C-alpha cells in the first residue's frame, strides 16, 4: 500500500491495524498518537486510496491481498489473533496449518459480527 498509494509509514500502520479489526481508538493507542491524529491519518488514507469509509478501505486492502495479521514488530509479542481485542476465537496455533488461507477464514460468525459492529461504531 505504501508504494501503490504513497502512504506514509504511519498511515500504512494505521490501515493494517484497521484491516486486523481494530477500531480507530485502539489504533491510536497502538500507534502512540491522539485519536484526532489517527482521524487525520485516516482521512488522508481515504483521499489517497479513493475510499470514503473504513469498510471500503478494508475491502480495497483485501482485494489487493494485503496480509491480515500483526506487523512484524507485533508478531514477536502477540501470538494471538490481531482481532483478539474483539474476542477472536481462532487458535493461534492454527497459523502454521492455515498459512495459505486468508486469516478471516478461521473466524467464526460471531467474530465477523463483532467486526461489523466495531466498524459501524467507529464511523
Produce a short descriptive summary:
This protein has 123 residues and is mainly α. It has one domain. It contains seven helices and no strands.
What does this structure look like?
The protein is mainly α and 123 residues long. It has one domain. Helices cover 54% and strands 0% of the residues. The chain is built from seven helices and no strands. The chain has helices at 2-5, 9-19, 24-31, 35-49, 54-63, 72-75, 109-122. Helix 2 (9-19) packs across helix 3 (24-31), helix 2 packs across helix 4 (35-49) and helix 3 (24-31) crosses helix 4. It is globular. It starts with a helix and ends with a helix. Mean pLDDT is 73; it is low at 69-80 and 91-102.
**Through-space gap between termini:** 22 Å
Helical residue percent?
A: 40-55%
Number of domains as seen in the coordinates: 1
Radius of gyration: 14 Å
What are the secondary-structure elements, in order, as H or E? Answer: HHHHHHH
What is the overall number of helices? 7
The strand count comes to 0
Structural class, from helix and strand content? mainly alpha
How is the biggest beta sheet arranged?
none
Give the overall silhouette: globular
Salient structural properties:
123 residues; mainly alpha
What's the SSE blueprint?
Layout: H1 2-5, H2 9-19, H3 24-31, H4 35-49, H5 54-63, H6 72-75, H7 109-122
Amino acid at each position: 500500500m505504501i508504494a501503490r498509494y504513497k502512504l506514509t509509514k504511519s498511515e500504512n500502520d494505521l490501515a493494517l491495524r484497521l484491516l486486523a479489526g481494530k477500531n480507530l481508538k485502539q489504533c491510536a493507542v497502538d500507534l502512540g498518537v491522539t485519536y484526532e491524529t489517527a482521524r487525520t491519518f485516516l482521512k488522508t488514507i481515504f483521499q489517497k486510496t479513493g475510499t470514503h469509509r473504513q469498510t471500503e478501505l478494508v475491502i480495497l486492502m483485501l482485494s489487493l491481498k494485503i496480509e491480515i495479521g500483526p506487523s512484524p514488530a507485533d508478531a514477536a509479542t502477540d501470538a494471538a489473533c490481531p482481532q483478539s481485542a474483539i474476542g477472536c476465537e481462532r487458535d493461534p496455533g492454527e497459523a502454521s496449518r492455515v498459512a495459505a488461507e486468508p486469516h478471516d477464514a478461521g473466524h467464526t460468525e460471531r467474530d465477523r459480527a463483532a467486526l461489523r459492529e466495531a466498524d459501524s461504531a467507529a464511523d
